[in-house]
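Now for a chain:

_____
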Amino acid sequence: MNKSKIKKWLLVLAAFFVIIIFCVWPTNYVIDAPGQASPVSNLIKSNSKYNYSNFYFVTVSERPAVMIDYLTSYLRPYDSRYTQKQVRGNASSSEYNEMQKYYMSTSENNAIAYAAKKAQVPYQQKYLGVYVMSILPHSNFKNKLQVGDTIVAVNNTKVSSIAQLQDYIKTLPNKTKINLKVLRNGKVKNLTGKVSPLTGTNHSGIGIQLVDHTQVTSKPSIRIDAGNIGGPSAGLMFSLACYQIFTHEKLSTNKIAGTGTIDENGHVGMIGGIDKKVVAADKKGIKVFFAPTDQPAGIKKSETNYSEAVKTTKKIHSKMKIIPVNNFDDALSYIKSHKN
């Protein structure tokens, strides 16, 4: 082979590798796409024979985008592109994952608690402590506390609520040294730091965002294990599946999917990615889909989950019925009135 042919093949080979590198080059984007519709029963740990596979939760697939994935996502109508900043804010990847785990844990607890209350079966809500959601840059505990830590005591006094912790911290003079007892990955840690002034007030704080961390137990016992799935959006479907177990009744012979958060009063809240969830449910052959009518401040009626879900079914020419729900009773009433 002469030199010109060798040079030509080397250039072709070099171009090939350049294209490969370009295609797999990481971007700063995350792609959200339709995920999976799966039976809630797959996640519920219970010996009950009423753990039927008739209620489905639906996910949104979220993945880091390499260049080829980012470019081809424009050819997929239900793929959305977001920057890492838009998705995580100022949180690191590990902090973001911890927050998603907390949201899922809260969703699971709310679902079990509300279903038990609705079914009038015994349950208890155990207070575990205060969950750390974020740590402000000026906090003296910035490099000590971690997102996902649960604060169980301060200066050897057990924490019973966010309000109790905040009221105690507020009484301390600025730069007072305190000891926090925290649970991290099942292990106890003692962290020492100083309180600092809360911006715009005369009070002290520790510079963290907090939420209450609880755990629900019921009789019969139900545990929901979502694994690596994060977020609160499966709350409604979790609660329906738990209610079915608690009441010893198969509520429907149909496969029903849906989405929406659930709170302690049974209210169903708005979630993100409703269009992608509708597409995923339709691909699974689901015929009925519950969509929240929740309309938070600043959201137009045409922008509610229910309205977006109806629009999506029309776009994809789906015959799936979109059922509006504002609370748990709306979903339950529909199921009972359409029971086969």
Observations:
- The mean pLDDT is 90.
